[in-house]
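Work Package 3 (structural annotation) set out to generate three-dimensional models for the target panel prioritized at the project kickoff. During this period the team completed the workflow that converts sequence records into discrete structure tokens, so that structures can be stored uniformly alongside our sequence database. As a representative example, we reproduce one entry of 459 residues exactly as it appears in the project archive.
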Amino acid sequence: MHNPLLVPELREMLACGDGDGLREFCLESHPATVADFIALLEPAEVRGVLATVPPRERALIFSHLDPAMEFALTELLSRKELAEMVTHMLADERVDLLQRLTDEQREALMPALTAAEREDIRRLASYPDGTAGAVMTSDYAALSPSESAAQAIERLRREAPDKETIYYAYVVDEKRRPVGFISLRDLILAPAQRKVGEIMQRDVVYASADDDQEKVAQLIAKYDLLALPLTGADGTLVGIVTHDDVIDVIRQEHTEDVEKFVGIAGEHEVGAYLRTSALVHFRNRAGWVVGLAALGLVSGEIYQAFDTKLDHLLLLAFYLPMIASTGGNTGSQAAMVVMRSLATGEISGQHALQVLWKEARVATLMAGVLGLLVFGKVMLMESSAAMPVGMTLTAVALAIGLALSVQVITSTMAGALLPLLVSRLGFDPAVVASPALTTTVDITGLLIYFGVATLLLGL
């Protein structure tokens, strides 16, 4: 959240040329805190603040700014200034920044970087979005099994400033294939001359750089890891995904699921609401809304088909909204529970029968409770309602209660089955959830309601 409290003071220090005060403010606060305070300044003013700190701290603060401010700053910085800052950024953040630059900016910047940096950028940028490789960093610590504990500690001390984490070091063979890992704690406690290969843990949990990023997040959560090593197609260690990257992945996946759940298309980027134009928001939302509105016309046709029955028994019309909303609610509940279990890896399409059996029992209990409630409500509150000749209030109450019960069961089963089916076909189950599910159960609810009323009441 942007913080406006220090904005006047920062502008006053900039106007007075108080570089020492600005440097002290930046160096004594966390980079994320500094970014929050300077986010409300103009890009030129932000550039002036960043110019007062060393390149490494400048890169850390820069990486916590929102993408719009980052892009504005890249247009103000000279090629030398930008190259210096990019050099000191973490590998994964460096790639993210370069992918947001224009082709002209990228072509101007790349020659100013070292050959090793350019190669690292090209390699990391080659992984498709959504894969583990797209969020990994190459700034990991690697050790040889033949090194002593003292040598390993000295190596980590030298390399620490350029690594994202040194709490875990990965032990690789001569072909850079992971053979184990070792924690900094184990290294410190080990005898100085003991070999890394004797101390390391051999049961390495790792994933492929081509795996889905969600799978990597699940592995880190399951094994309580600070980082997860990734291997390439040839089995060599190519990078790691750290716990802070996993938090970003979880936020992104959650945003994507929520937006798909309510029928929003397009890119699903965290924190992009204000930066996205109204026209893009319209384009992302209009497709589903228009399509489902057209599908909703079917409900009108069903109403028209049964309008004469409603004329004979107006009481039925009073309970139509309840039937529709209850079906939508129970279906959405089941869909959300199943989707969440699919997302966390608790269930898969192979568990379809188990899930349906469980949801059938839940739905039956809910149907019994709701059916009895609406039956009692009709009997108590509608006693003065006029009934057609030969029809009793008890029969009407029974028809409404039974229709609601059947609607609850069918909606719950549909809400559970559709995500499982779509997942089994290899698609994202969120796309079949609300509002698509709600529209579907509305239509089936009307058919069930009028069908039960026709059968039991002889309309």
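The mean pLDDT is 84.
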